[in-house]
Amino acid sequence: MPSLMEKLRGYWESNHFHTRSGLPPEAIQRFETRYNVALPSDLREYLLGIDGMEDGDSDNELVAFLPLADIKPVPEELSSFAGIPDYSSICDGLPDTPKCFVFADHMIRSHVYAIRLSQDSEAPTPVIWICCPYWSEIAPSFSAFIEDYLTEFERIRFPRIASSMKGGYSHPERWVRSVAPKQVALLDRLVATVRTRVR
After folding, report:
1. What is the pLDDT of residue 169?
2. Cis peptide before 73, with omega less than 30 degrees from 0?
């Protein structure tokens, strides 16, 4: 039976997404040394086999998986991005942001996915959905995130429960009920347009 990462590779290849070859162990070690973290076994397996997607490529849902060279801590990757959406206050609300690393981008930062790392490769490594000052832990591990990505994408597109949302505003449920559906509708129209033009 193929492993989860082999299933991911097969899914991407069958849809003709352009991926990068896996990394040598030394490249992963350099990353760990630079940021003083230890990668969990599932993320390590992924990077040894697939180093994300090629620049400018994404999947059918417009999710782009970043190569290790572009995987950076939230303060480095997001805190200076004060455009639309505005991530400039994310470090005020999300705990331990220097250990949260953005590894995937949805529709040019409409939201992003980050994983919390530490010096202990056996410690919990939740995957965090981030949009503006909002954030929510949506999967307990990288492998759990990939499982949902492959089988039930809607589980990770947006947090499913308003009470799970945290961030800088006082009424996150208002965002879930009003803004999120509009983003989904816009994304669906954009994806439909792209697919029509590709044909």
Report:
1. 41
2. no
Distances (CA, A) of 61 to 20, 23, 34, 92, 175: 19, 25, 32, 29, 21
The two structure tokens encoding residue 190: 């954009």
Say whether pLDDT at 175 is over 50. Answer: no
Strand, helix or coil at 152?
coil
| The two structure tokens encoding residue 111 | 């939201």
Residues recorded for the chain? 199
Q: Is the separation of the CB atoms in 177 and 159 below 8 Å?
A: no
CA torsion angle 109 122 152 54 (round to 10)? 40
Q: Is the pTM of this model over 0.85?
A: no
Please state, in angstroms and rounded to a whole number, the distance separating the CA atoms of residues 48 and 75.
26
Q: Taking a C-beta distance cutoff of 8 angstroms, is the pair 149, 114 a contact?
A: no
What distances in angstroms separate CA 96 from CA 73, 100, 182, one per listed residue?
A: 10, 7, 30
Coil/strand/helix, residue 88: coil
CA–CA distances in Å: residue 40 to residues 28, 70, 80, 123, 146:
11, 18, 28, 8, 14
Query: Which are the contacts of 170, defined by CB distance < 8 A and separation ≥ 6?
Result: none
CATH of the domain spanning 4-198:
3.40.1580.10
d(C-alpha 81, C-alpha 199), whole Å:
35
> Domain spans of the chain?
4-198
